[in-house]
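Honest question from a wet-lab person: if I give you the sequences of every part of a complex, can you actually get the arrangement of the whole thing, not just the pieces? Trying it with mine:
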Amino acid sequence: MAVSTFLQQLVNGLSLGSIYALIALGYTMVYGVLRLINFAHGDVYMLGAYAGYYLSRRLQGRDPSLVSALIVMAGAMLACAIIGMVIERFAYRPVRRASRLTLLITAIGVSLFIENGAQLVFGADPKFFPSLAPRADFRFGPVRVTSEQLTVIVVSFLLMVALRLFILKTRTGKAMRAVSFSIDASKLMGISTDGIIAITFALGSALAAAAGVLIGMQIPKIDPLMGIVYGLKAFVAAVLGGIGNIPGAVLGGLLIGISEVMVVGYLSSTYRDAIAFGILILVLLLRPQGILGRVQKEKV
Amino acid sequence: MKRVATGAGVVVGLWLVNGLAAGSLVPGFRISPYLLQVVCLAGINIILAVSLNLINGFTGQFSIGHAGFMAIGAYSSAFLTVTFGTRLRGMLAFLPEGAQSGVLLLAGLSVAAVLAAIAGFLVGVPSLRLRGDYLAIVTLGFGEIIRVFILNIDAVGGARGLSGIPRLADFFWIYLFAVITILVVSRIVGSSFGRTLIAIREDEIAAEAMGVDTTKSKVISFIVSSAFAGIAGGLFGHYLMYLHTNSFTFLKSIEIIIMIVIGGLGSITGSVLGAILYIGLTEGLREFAQYRMVVFSLLLVVLMIVRPQGILGHREFVNLLPRRWRLGVEAPPTHG
Amino acid sequence: MALLQLSNVTMRFGGLVAVNDLSLILESGQLYGLIGPNGAGKTTVFNVITGVYKPTAGEISLDGESLGGKRTGRITRHGVARTFQNIRLFAEMTVLENVKVAFHCRQAAHVASAVFRTNTHSEEEERVDEHSRALLKIFHLDHLSEEKAKNLPYGSQRRLEIARAMATSPRLLLLDEPAAGMNPQEAHELMDLIRWIRDQFGMAILLVEHNMKVVMGICETVHVLDYGSTIAVGPPAEIQRNPKVIEAYLGGA
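Yes, you can. This is the full assembly:
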């Protein structure tokens, strides 16, 4: 009995963790190239959920099907990719060379802007995501996996694999890695750093949007402030895995998701949100570079 | 002698203004309670902003967990006065009621300051060796953990909040402490210790190479800063008579950051200005409710792009005044 | 006893050996030059001595007391001061304040005395002010005392770096390329200044320099590094004739 509960929690954690991982990837990629903590990233995830919501409403009338779900997801990803690039171009690029604190405040400003703007435009009340794909429950022995969870896990996995292939195999991907290593050296190598940074934002935002749609499908309730808590936890995940490190973000996301589910399941739900912060503090005090990160020594 | 006279003058002046505002001085004349509340909240924000600036502006450390220390001060002092208030008053029965309240408040604020300072030490020592962004995240995390922790303590109300706090703080006490905060921080900044803080901000490695114990200096400024945040929290609770952890989220920490950034990091005058401006803007635009935050955040981004050093940058208002106007309060050296 | 002693000091960064088995002895009042082609590990040696890096192996001692593993601030208080290759002044502070900061490590006053304006505090402030101004005068920087460090011309900034390091009352002064970017006239003045510092204060000076005229002109002993390893140690005349040194700088045939 205990084993099956454990396995069930593991599956739940995997599903939640995949969401965190998708969002965490955006944080880590942007930090990698700009050393910027993109506070507004969680809000892009929220916008993705809303984009999916409005898109699926347009498609209303047709039967829920896999195809319509894919269209909604693709649409939301595209919309947020553009939003991400717009944010970068108009809010972050002008302050790119400024102090860390200035960058931080700018990011916070953008985040507040999106959150409050969303409340104004969409209304502060939560909305309910229409169901997109046919529902089903699967049983693997004693463990129950809903179709939503399965979708989350499978789609997340595919997206992460796609990202990895992109980073490793394509020229743009290599350029991204170069820029995250040294922006100045990359410029000297003739890499268009502005373009690479824009693409980084686009990719990160698209992944966040996918997470937003997936969550919308799973927990049909969405609201303009949903990005705050999820964003923060995904950020912790990125730090846990080693901020700037892409596999780290995935690892961190899964670990946070699983820990959260385990704590709620086995201990109590009151400390649900505090768990992420607790992990964060432990990591930063014991191993600030994260699990997969490397120590950065300042040259004197 | 001159210093004592100035000090006494300030105290009397505040007391008079307080009486005037409350309507007890000139019959028939009083300031609208709403305006008075805004002014008092501004005073609390001044304490928060000036104390945070010591760490962020003058020492150049990236702390965004100030609300956590405020919360500790608020709840600890409120717990003291709510639980032991009547008993303490009993012990002080020989004093007039006003004086009793004063002593009670000071007792509460002392507890607030000490506990917040201890928290500052506990958070600061492990965190302050971290660089920039990491320090910011850790302080953010600590602020949130403190808040969630308090939220789960039933003895101070838990999710319902803590009510029934005696109204011990008013304009007089709030602004008295605001003046004290400004005084203390100015003196620290203008001293040799203050110089080491600024050196740490300018170049920590060079400061270390010049013999400065950077960790010790950072921790000390962190402790002082947290203590004042605790005092601000204590005053807050005893003014509003009700506390809920929702007032101490990381959004509150960010508000304080915004205040000091608007005014200018590294400028005490700037922090005061920023605190006043911020409250003024949020209250002034209150009717526009939803649009207010949207416009505000947009302005914030624009400010960062156009004038990141804020209004005063590193400058102090006192440095712009002619020499003979300057009081016994020394202006910190011209760093801007 | 030697003032500074390095015994078999090695500094490794991952796979890269920046300093390899370095041993050197510095006597009080000695002018010691450390030279080598770029990347030879000279600044790393400074960083290891001053505690910025912990040596992978070997021992460092000042007047018999071990420095290894100690924090930079503590090592400075022991009596080791340094300047930086890329000037690291406190940009927004004035020239006078830059020097005053360095005096702090020899002060006794605390935060509390600053807040309460005790007599001890005021007296100390006066003392520091006097000493700082005197020091600036020596370095011909007193007329710039209220100027912000970042506004100073390059040569003055370099002098300020040295003045600031001197304010920590060191027994050993480490100068990292103090003549960088100087014209012959300035470099000549610098040589006089360094010699004068040594004569007046009796401290040992360890100098990293690329300007051969300066090194060969004032150093009594010259230590040559190449790729982290010592290839020659001796008086300037010998070093200049040493074939290994010539090869390291000009490359083999």
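Two things worth pointing out. The mean pLDDT of chain A is 87. The beta strands of chain A are 127-128, 137-140, 143-146, 221-222.
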